[in-house]
Amino acid sequence: MKVSFSLNGKPRKVKVAPMKRLLDTLREECGLTGTKEGCGEGECGACTVLLDGEAVNSCLVPSCQADGAKITTVEGLASSKKLSKIQRAFLACGAAQCGICTPGMVMAACALPKRPSLDPIREGLAGNLCRCTGYMKIYDAVEEALGK
Q1: CA-CA distance, 90 to 142, in Å (whole number)?
Q2: 107 three-class SS
Q3: Residue 139: partners with Cβ closer than 8 Å, 6 or more residues away
Q4: Could you say which architecture CATH assigns to the domain 85-146?
Q5: 31 Cβ neighbours under 8 A, 6+ residues apart
Q6: CATH C-level class of 2-76
Q7: How far, CA to CA in Å, does 42 sit from each of 21, 108, 119, 143?
């Protein structure tokens, strides 16, 4: 089937099997490899993207559900070779280590409201697992980027 969507602000049309995972469509058909596969079961959050403004695990979304949607991946956050505020904060705070969870964490953080306190940050990122940082540097980066 042909699926049309807005991908990082640009219209895209791809031909895919309807039940092909959005994760695979983004990586294989669209060439955007910033979205990572961790578990493939929706447990780790490494594949998080924004689908119509909401954070979703792209490994659980069939591509047919993206028809007509607005999709934002980690590649869509930077503009003109300049990192977004949240990406810069992750670098400044040392919140990125091995890099597998980072794109998903960044995308989940983008779905949070402005000026969140620590509890909403923890809740908003609860579906994203990290084995390297211990989470505090990630929480610090999100607080810095979104305002305390």
Answers
A1: 8
A2: helix
A3: 118, 121, 122, 125
A4: Orthogonal Bundle (1.10)
A5: none
A6: alpha beta
A7: 12, 13, 22, 25
pLDDT tens series, the chain, 148 aa = 999 999 999 999 999 998 999 999 999 999 999 999 999 999 999 999 999 999 999 999 999 999 999 999 999 999 888 999 999 999 999 998 888 999 999 999 999 999 888 999 999 999 999 988 889 999 999 999 998 6
Which tokens go with 54?
């909401």
Beta bridge partners of 92: none
Q: Domain limits of the chain?
A: 2-76, 85-146
> Residue ranges of the alpha helices (H) in the chain?
22-24, 85-93, 102-110, 118-124, 136-146
